[in-house]
Amino acid sequence: MLLSALIDWSRIQFAMSAMYHWIFVPLTLGMGFIMALAETKYYRTGDDFWKETAKFWQKIFGINFAAGIATGLILEFQFGTNWSNYSYFVGDIFGAPLAIEGMFAFFMEATFFAVMFFGWDKVSKKFHLASTWLTIGGATLSAVWILVANAWMQYPTGAALNPDTVRHEMISFSDVALSPVAISKFFHSVISSWMLGSIVVMGICGYYLLRKRNERFALESIKLAATLGLVSALLTMVTGHMSAGHVATYQPMKLAAMENMYEGGEKAPLSIFGIVNGDKDKADWASDKSDYAGDFNISLPTGLSILSFNDPNAYVPGIKNILEGGYTKPDGTIALSAEERIQRGKVAIQALADYRAAKEAGDEAEAAAQKEILDANYEHFGYGYFDKVEDLIPNIPMLYYSFRLMVGLGLLFILVCLVPLIMIKRNKEKFINMRWYHWVMIISIPLVYIASQAGWVVAEVGRQPWTIQDALPVQAAVSNIAAGAVKTTFFLFLALFTLMLIAELSIMLHAIKKGPKNHVSNDAQNETK
């Protein structure tokens, strides 16, 4: 019971910290790209309008950037405080990309950030433009290494267990940094962040159009942001399809839970929307019972097979199939049952203990024998920490609805970006007076954050109960500390992050209300007077 409380509070604290941090990160990446594009226009045209436009978006970027750093530092500290067993077990691999991020990408951001903000009219236009692009380039490089680390948690590759130290050691840096999961996760996360930044810019500009002020600034920024947002939304769909294929290959349980699919098969349908039977607990899903998927489901025939393997006839396993095993996996091997993997995992754990005991006793022959047993069963090592197969099932309702929320809102944002591009080109004055659409752009700001957070819920909750997929479950990764201590710090961090968010929003809203320099309309100036 005490361990369960510790695990729950540690997970809740880390989830809360990560979700607060992810409020700031995608806006940094998206807003940074837009400010760099605006300054590029200034460099090419020499028009001071674009200089002031770039400076305004840089101001919003800077406010958000500072808050993102603070939340990110606290998040990283939690690996050592709340997840020390995890840090010890895989720190040699997980720590490497984070160290690169800190030593290279972060310092690159910090160096050119100062030039970007304080170097206007002090350095050449070309050098200042380069500094702006290098600032957002550094932020993107930071994202690269953080996402590489996260991708390794989803698909651990390029590493091996050293039984003498009981630590994972990297055997191929390229396998870790260039794994297919890392590549697709990077492109999907960064490109979707461009979409988020675009929607936020459009929403801010919608506010100016509602107030009948800064109209040229608003229209030009909307055209810039809507173009980037539309391209990003379409590319996000493409990279999302890539990610779905990797989930189907490396994390089939996550995919089955995302689809609320009890039993799979060939020509698997894709659920468009349905009602998850929330009364069923995990033990029901692990047994031979009926009424799993609820009473309502709209599906696309063969859609899941195409999404997963680009083949309408492909076999996609459901939760029951994964637990029972016996189907052919994408690599051509036959899947073992969850029960057999649990038993083999326990053999691996025991072999590791026996190996270390033999080493300590100086019995090299016995140590070699146990090492052979460990190697033969290590693929199932993490399963040895479980006693019940139903514990391998993640939170199905949360995954199912989060995935559909993410995809549905992503499709909506395509329209949100497309309409202004068409209307401004056809009839600019009519678009300026489309007050209802200005509200659509403003309301899209919270919606795009909901979509962004839903994406991370799918990625991280879908990996549960693992911290490292198939290798280290959460119950073996948590620190040996009191649950009450984690609970106390949870509320302290919650208060701190909330105050930080309120402060950031207050400063940002003040900057937005003040508006960009030299672009206040005559009507707005008269109102002020």
- The percentage helix is over 70%
Radius of gyration: 26 Å
DSSP helix count? 19
| Number of beta strands | 8
Determine the mean pLDDT: 88
The secondary-structure class comes to mainly alpha
Return the domain count: 1
Summarize the main sheet: 2 strands, antiparallel
Shape: globular
Order of helices and strands: HHHHEEHHHHEEHEHEHHHHHHEEHHH
Share of β-strand residues: under 5%
Please provide a written account of the structure.
The protein has one domain (2-255, 397-517). A two-stranded antiparallel sheet has the order 1-2. It has a two-stranded antiparallel sheet with strand order 3-6. It is 72% helix and 5% strand. It is globular. It is mainly alpha-helical.
Report a brief summary of the structure.
The chain has 529 residues and is mostly helical.
